[in-house]
Amino acid sequence: MKKIKILTLLIILFTLCGCYNYRELNELSIVSAIGIDKAKNGNIKVTIQVISSKKESSDSSQSNTNAKFITYESTDKTVQEAIRKVILSSPKRLFATQMQILVISEECAKEGITKYIDFFTRDPEIQMKFLTLISKNTTANNILTTLTPLETINSTNIRESLKTNTKYLGIGYEITFEDIINNLLNDKIEVSIPSVVIINENKNSDSTKNLEKVKNIADSKISSIAVFKNKKLIGYLTEQESIAYSFILNNIENTIITTKCSKNGLVSSEITTSKTKISNNKNNISIKVVGNANVNESSCNINLNSKKEIKKLRSEIEKNIKNNIKKTLTKVQKKYKSDIFGLEDIIYKNDPKYYKSIKNWDKFYQKINFNISVKIETLEKGNTLYTPERK
Amino acid sequence: MNKIIEKLKTDTDEMKDIIYRKKIISKITTYIVFSESLTNSDKISDFIIRSLNKIKKVNKKNILEKIKNNISNNKVQEITTYQEICKYLHSGFTIIIIDNISTYLALETKGDLSRSIDKPESENTYRGAKDAFTEIYQTNIGLIKRRIKSNKLRIKNYNKGKYTQSEIGVLSLSDKVHKESYNMILKKMENLNIEDIVNSGEIKNNIEKENKSVFPTVRTTERPDIAVLALLSGKTVIVIDNCPYVLILPSCLNDFFKTSEDVYGKSINVTFTRILKLFAFFIALLVPAIYIAIITFNQEMLPTDLLINFSTQRDGVPFPAFFEAILMMICFEILREGDLRVPGFSGSALSIVGALILGDAAVNAGIVSPIMIIVIAITAISSLLFTEPELINALRIWRIFFMIGATIIGIIGVLIVFLILIIHLSSLKSFGVPYLKPFSPINKKELKDSIIKLNSTNGGQNEKN
Q: Which residues of A touch B311 (CB under 8 A)?
């Protein structure tokens, strides 16, 4: 009898509470990306990219040209108000946990990003693992409405190309929203965010006409890194500088370095591994890069059998990377005066006593001396030892 | 007319099946009584009547001795009571009744009513022995005794049932058997309270009465080699007349993962198969529940691309996921039940219709999503990896509990039901042996032949209870 009582209570406990958070999959529209732009009169324009889960028609020839996503746009005073307006026009509940990217327009970033991203830090449904990008020379709306040829959903396209970029080039780097928030909350690091551009932008880029072409297709492309100071965008690095920046942050997995080997000849080598260590001694910061490389292409007659040539080539590569890093450091230090490398944080962690004696970081930052050393430990020769030019 | 004969005739309402043959030997009237359907007529005419014909010059005093000496039959029993006459008559014996002598002779003349030893049908193996138990008690005992040539094999006999008078044998190896559970079983057998027994299932239900769980604590098998392996590992085997399935007890959850191949296979391969079975066990229990939980509550757990896929497939399906799953499960269970019962020649029609309904048409009609078909199919196939039907049924019931948990509070519900299941299984006992034995309470020696099998062990024979 007692058992039955307990059982009834349990059944009531579970059934009367209702189905908390119950939502059928076909009542949700999956948000894949959100774009934020500035609108007139200080309003915010929000672009929400939603994946269309409508069943493709059985006619397979038709399904190829169908856009698999749609975008909602709305403008209001705050991000939340704008999103609420979208909810009114969407037949399904917006479901943002699967969001892949957040695109913030250049304009907003120049004004300061905190105001625009605050909403995303508060909503419990949003996982902060999505990637964040700055739309360079264009609006976030344009980025999210461009149909891309190889991926049907363009936010996937941007996410994947940022991933491959990080892996094989090092121009951009995968920075999640969570990292950005951490950097924003840490006053010893300035924020830096990779940017995205549209190439071959035209007025048809948001229709399937764009996909019917074979050349000059409008497409999104990962571009160099945007530098922030005091949470405001102040400029971009060049692509070479972005690679150097990745070297400093130890984000390089693979990249290409091209060096001169004779008057007109060039050698392209691939950096296969790289590790960076930063340490400081008072205001001298030493950056040590250790890596391996592989010769990929050569247009002059070098003999890879000779130790001397190899040594020469190696030192060329080392010099190239070193110069690049130095140039970037100087540019950021002198021109942007922004500490995107988190040097303040490094000094604070390495030498807290010394850090306390620093009164004004901005002045101190200008006085920092850099000590850069690059070492290529092994240089692999590729499949052939000789160039076809050899006589 | 003999009094006994008269009584028999009135008791059986002059049943035509019972033949009374009158024979006069040296002026002494004798009757040969037998049941036509149970006996072999060749045996009666060849051995009994012919031998009786040869008997001459007897008187009342020595006729019984003479018949006993001259009859060419291997089993001659002297009986005295009417009850015994009935018992032997209904077991296929021929009774010789001599006028005015109160001792009767029962002669074995059983007809062959059994089929021969066949291949096992419900438990296939690709390397094991190919014989299976039959309906005849003596044959079944023989199949076991042929494998164990030892005096240590003990058979305790019972005769139960008012009408069926079924022979029941409780087999054990006296030096290996787990004493505690053996005594428990004997006690239960003595207190067995059943009217009649047709199948081993009735005994099974009766002796595991206090087991309220859906999980089986008794294993059934039709393979003598499995029964012998069980005996060798200290278990008790119950053989029942007229049933080709014998009972192995006590049986723990881990025993249902073992097959007779485990003895022949290389230990690494056996381990692999058992891990596969463990996977199948959890797939059969959990997959529909986890699917429901993920697509109705915890969508954030899926990678985006997979979620888009699921979402596209769910588009246009009018039912909630739980109902969709239940619908497909019922369809499958109906098909399975149908497949078991229909005669072979209409089986192909059933499978074609089943495949079409469950597979293509339901999806095209927009009643279920293709993913759900995959989920139910893999679940159904996984549960069929186990040969014990009671275990399959237990999995089926718990699967529904899991699905209800998932429908109410998502993945947390699955977790809660899982905890309840673990608690339930740990509290179960099979005749004094904990149900999750090698794992809880942990036993290092037996763990060597549980989910993993190490080289040194041999099919559970080294197991000490």
A: 25-26, 28, 30, 51, 53
